[in-house]
Amino acid sequence: MNESFDPSEYLQEAFGAEGITLSAAQNAAFLAYAELLEQKNAVMNLTAITDFKDVVHKHFLDSCAPARLPWFAPEGREISLIDVGSGAGFPGIPLKILYPELKVTLLDSLQKRVNFLNEVIEALGLEGTEAIHARAEDGARREDLRERFDIAVSRAVAQLPVLAEYCLPYVKVGGSFLAYKGSGAEEEAEAAKGAVRRLGGGKTELTVFTLPGADKETLGRSLVRVIKTAPTPKKYPRKAGTAAKSPLA
């Protein structure tokens, strides 16, 4: 990175190109988060994406893609969100920075990652944010987590029927499950309709968009929204590992 490069300016311009104006506090929070990612990534594998520009586009902006959805903005409402399989904090932490009023829970199965998430929460002063150590299947059986959230999000790499079984049990009836997917999500969403219905899901909405990357190439992305219309049957999610080995049809 050359000496004339200004990370703060780059961040502002990248978000501005997507129609998002960051406050000084939000800009500082994203910069601090990027620095923490770089520091911790030197000693543990959090992300393969390490270049600052790539982190901005492929992690921060991609995580904040729900800003494109009119229904997502809290606008003074109290909204609870759980990030299932949060990893290094994507998309939950960028969404919390962008929408400070969100009440965010970050769920991950690896204690080392949860420790990192807690470091970020403390360093950035993210009030109304907690990190929980649990597998998705186990957390969804906890009374304090099951069907307690307005929105469940996940950027985890898994087919939609698997993600739906992980995430829909956390969502209140009337709430939404939002999956971050690449191109080709339309066929995946269609194939997942049976599984979604079995889990209490109803209408599925697909938003396709392009996200310019730092290398000037266009990253094809999709957001799949499942609106929950009925409680998830108690038998779901199945025991740990079952959803991935035998996805619902």
Give a brief description.
With 249 residues, the chain is of the alpha/beta class.
Structural account:
Helix 5 links the parallel strand 2 (103-108) and strand 3 (129-133). Helix content is 37%, strand content 23%. It has a seven-stranded mixed beta sheet with strand order 3-2-1-4-5-7-6, sandwiched between helices. The longest helix has 18 residues, at 24-41. Helix 1 (7-17) packs across helix 2, helix 1 runs parallel beside helix 3 and helix 2 runs antiparallel to helix 5. The protein contains ten helices and seven strands. The mean pLDDT is 94. The protein has one domain: Rossmann fold, CATH 3.40.50. It has helices at residues 7-17, 24-41, 52-63, 92-98, 111-124, 136-139, 160-167, 185-191, 193-198, 242-245; strands at 80-84, 103-108, 129-133, 149-154, 171-182, 201-212, 218-228. It has 249 residues and is α/β, with parallel strands linked by helices.
Offer a few descriptive terms:
249 residues; 37% helix; alpha/beta; 7 strands; Rossmann fold
